[in-house]
Specification:
about 20% strand, about 425 residues, four-stranded mixed β-sheet, globular, three-stranded antiparallel β-sheet, 11 helices, binds iron/sulfur cluster, alpha+beta
Amino acid sequence: MAKVRNWQLGREMDYRYENGKAKRQFAAVFNINRCIACQTCTMACKSTWTFSPGQELMWWNNVETKPYGGYPQNWDLKTLDLQEKANPGGQVWNTGKKDAKTAPYGTFEGKTIFETADQVDKMATGYIPDEADWKSPNIYEDVATRFPKEGVSLPEHSGWFFYLQRICNHCTYPACLAACPRNAVYKREEDGIVLIDQGRCRGYRKCVEACPYKKSMYRPSTRTSEKCIGCYPRVEGTDPLTDGLPMETRCMTACIGKIRLQGLVQVGDDGLWIEDRQNPLYYLVHVAKVALPLYPQFGTQPNVYYIPPRWVPRDYLRQMFGPGVDDAIAAYENPSRETLAVLQLFRATQSIIFSYRVVQGPKSGELRIGGQTREVFDDTVIGFDSKGREIVRVAVNEPVIERQGALAFAMNTI
Ligand code: SF4
Ligand code: SF4
C-alpha cells in the first residue's frame, strides 16, 4: 500500500497505488433540493448505453429515495456496517482540525475501506450484492420515515424523504481499480474518467465487490463487468453533436429539474484541486462550500458533490455527507450574491463551463425569507468555454411576466 493524500478526509491514507495520475478531473455538483425524481436522467443514460441483452438490471445512473431506497438495495448500509464491524466505535471525525485547502471538513479519524481491508485480506472491504438486490432499482420510491399528523416545518421535517441521484463518482482513488487483479480498470490522465478495459476483464467481479457505491456491475451475457463511462466522447468533444466543444454527459444535460452541473477541474501533483476560483465547480466545493462528497469516509475521494436537502435531520445527513453539512445548508439557505448567480448556471447550456463571471446590476427589490430581509439584484452570470469564449448568459433574477386580465379571462373560457 502507498500513502496518498485524501483532502476530503484531511489526512493521508493507504491506497494500492501512488497518487492518482489525472491532470484534469471529471466532477459534478448535484443539488438534491431541486430533484423531482422524474428519472429523465436515468432513462437518458439507459437509452444511450445499457439497452442491450444482459444489461436489463444495469442502471449506471439511478435516483433512489432515501432513507429506505437503494440500488442495489441497502448498498450503503451494508458497507457502513462492514466498516463499523471492522472498527467498532472508531468511525469518527475530528472537526477541531480544519484547514481550508487540505482539511476543509476536519480530519476523519476512522478507517477507510482500504484501511480495514488488511483485516480481510483484500484491497478494499466490500461485498457482492445478491441478484435480488439489483432487481428493484426504485424500491421504496416516495416512502417517508413517517406521516406526521400535523404539518411539518423547517429546519427539520419530522417525516421526511429525499431523492439521491447516483452515478459513478470517477473517484480519485477508485476502489474498483485497486481491487482488479487483471489491471483492467484504469483512470484516464486527461479527465480522470474511470473505465474498464473490456478486453482485459475476465468477470471476476472484484470491482463490483470493492466499489462502496456499487457502481461497477456484472453483465452475465458477456461475463465482464461494466460501469458508467462518463459519456467520454462528449467530454472529449468528439461526439458528432459537440462540434468540438467538451460537452456534459447525457444524464446531466437531460435533467429536467436543473439540478446538475458537470465540468472538469485541474488537479495538482499533490492530488489537490488547483485553485481556480472562477471555475463554477471549484467555487461551489471549495469557496462557497455548499456542495459535499457522498460518504467521504469510505476513502475513495469521490468527485460527485451534493448540495444537501435542507429539510432532513442533520444527524442523517452528517453520516452521509460528513461534518460539512451544517455549513453547506447555511450557505444554501442564505446564499451570497455570487452563489445565487452560480446556481443559475445549472443546465443553462450543454457545453462544459470552464469559468464564469458575474456582472452586477442594480438593486431591484427586497424579499423576506426566514424572518430576514434579502436584497434582490438584477445581476447577470456569464459562462465561458475552455477557450474563454462566452457560451451562456443568464439573468439571476428572472423576470415575472403578468398576463393581462382580459387575456387571462379569454384563456380561462377556452
Ligand atoms: S464510484 Fe465505484 S465504480 Fe466508480 S470510480 Fe469509484 S469505486 Fe470505481
Ligand atoms: S432528471 Fe434531474 S430532476 Fe429528474 S430525476 Fe434526474 S436528477 Fe432528478
